[in-house]
Amino acid sequence: MSKKPAETQKSAIPDDPELQAQRFGRVREAHQTETAEDYVELIADLIEAQGEARVVDLSSRFGVSHATVNKVIARLNREGLVSNRKYRSLFLTDEGRELAVRCKERHLIVFNFLRSIGVPEEIAEIDAEGVEHHVSEETLKIFQAYISKHKK
To answer: How far is CA 147 from CA 106, 114, 119, in A?
Structure first.
């Protein structure tokens, strides 16, 4: 592998500490919303596929305990994304449904972009699940433009 001349190599550490703090802050923010996004997206998918979403379904599909799911659902209730009653199905609020739709759109754009550059379907699905939470709106627009330009 050839080495780039020193003047064209980019330092791993930005000169501006504030810029680096902003970048890390954006990643931390994405991590905080990632769980909520995953849950509302799966709840919407379960309701569409089988008419309801239950704690047991979420537990099974996420591979986590019922207690973990109940803790997240309590948080989503407080945030106004989910409504439920004890021992009953889960429902998305209007805000929860809107978030689920946005998440699904982001996921599909990332998935379709990865497929368009030759990533195998199964790998693209796995990678899209992580990238969708961290990619900026600007990058999503570029992905979408690339997909549109390179449709077969």
So the answer is: 13, 9, 13
Q: Which single residue is written with the structure tokens 């900026």? A: 136
Are the beta carbons of 147 and 112 closer than 8 angstroms?
yes
- The answer as to whether 97 is a domain residue is yes
Tell which residue, 125, 114, 118, 106, has the closest CA to residue 34.
Answer: 106
Structural domains of the chain, count: 1
Structure tokens at 67: 């207690």
* CATH number assigned to the domain comprising residue 84: 1.10.10.10
List Cβ neighbours of 57 (8 Å cut-off, separation of 6 or more).
46, 50
Residue 95 inside a domain? The answer is yes
User: Which residues form the domain of 124?
Assistant: 27-149
pLDDT digits over 56-92, tens only?
999 999 999 999 999 999 999 999 999 987 778 999 9
Separation between Cα atoms, residue 74 and residue 24, nearest integer Å: 28
Residue 8 lies in a domain: no
pTM score of the predicted model = 0.75
Is 86 within the bounds of a domain? yes
End-to-end CA separation in angstroms for the chain: 34
Report d(CA 99, CA 142) in Å as an integer: 21
